[in-house]
């Protein structure tokens, strides 16, 4: 998903502050209400920026949402998967995702309380996350020895990771990182992780 503003370019301090303010406001509001009930006016008011500033950076609230996923991707350091050569590297990335979800567990529960798993918000996140996996796998050496199309492998990875995270963080199962990694190994071992070993 392409954003109006390219956050990968060198940002001024002002741009960093603005992007941070709007994304934090979006995350906070998602913990209070459904995504479809959030307006650009409310985002601007809560972030304390005029609408003109919002539209300098984003086309609409969906564009801001994409930036929020980008910011989460940076926090998780998912781009390290592009250098993956083994199942251990994938599990290291899984651990990073787990730790970020664990650090934001309270907000995550609130977001899902207002935006159920079948909501447009979760669908948007799942599509973004799957696209990231697809891009990273296409850029790595991993798919070259797999007969399965890269897009399908990416969907398999992301669906499995999201399933485990949903089961742990949203269904309220108390599971350590080590146990979660075991689940990931067992769920992926018969297919892609075996091919990556």
Automatic annotation (TrEMBL):
InterPro entries: Homeodomain-like_sf (IPR009057), HTH-type_Tx_Regulator (IPR050624), HTH_TetR (IPR001647). Keywords: DNA-binding. GO terms for molecular function: DNA binding. The lineage of its organism: Bacteria, Bacillati, Bacillota, Bacilli, Lactobacillales. It comes from Lacticaseibacillus camelliae DSM 22697 = JCM 13995. It holds the Pfam family TetR_N. Residues 39-58 bind DNA. This is HTH tetR-type domain-containing protein. Residues 16-76 form the HTH tetR-type domain.
């Amino acid at each position: 998903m392409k954003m109006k503003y390219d956050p990968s370019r060198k940002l001024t301090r002002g741009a960093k502050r603005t992007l941070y303010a709007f994304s934090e406001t979006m995350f906070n509001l998602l913990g209070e209400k459904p995504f479809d009930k959030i307006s650009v006016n409310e985002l601007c008011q809560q972030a304390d920026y005029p609408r003109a500033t919002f539209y300098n950076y984003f086309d609409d609230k969906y564009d801001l949402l994409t930036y929020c996923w980008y910011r989460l991707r940076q926090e998780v350091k998912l781009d390290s998967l592009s250098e993956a050569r083994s199942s251990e590297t994938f599990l290291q990335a899984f651990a990073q995702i787990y730790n970020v979800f664990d650090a934001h567990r309270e907000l995550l529960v609130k977001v899902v309380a207002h935006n159920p798993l079948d909501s447009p918000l979760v669908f948007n996140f799942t599509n973004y996350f799957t696209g990231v996996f697809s891009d990273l796998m296409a850029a790595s050496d991993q798919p070259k020895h797999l007969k399965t199309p890269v897009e399908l492998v990416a969907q398999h990875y992301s669906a499995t990771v999201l399933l485990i995270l949903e089961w742990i963080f949203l269904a309220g199962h108390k599971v350590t990182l080590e146990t979660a990694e075991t689940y990931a190994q067992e769920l992926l071992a018969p297919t892609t992780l075996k091919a990556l070993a």
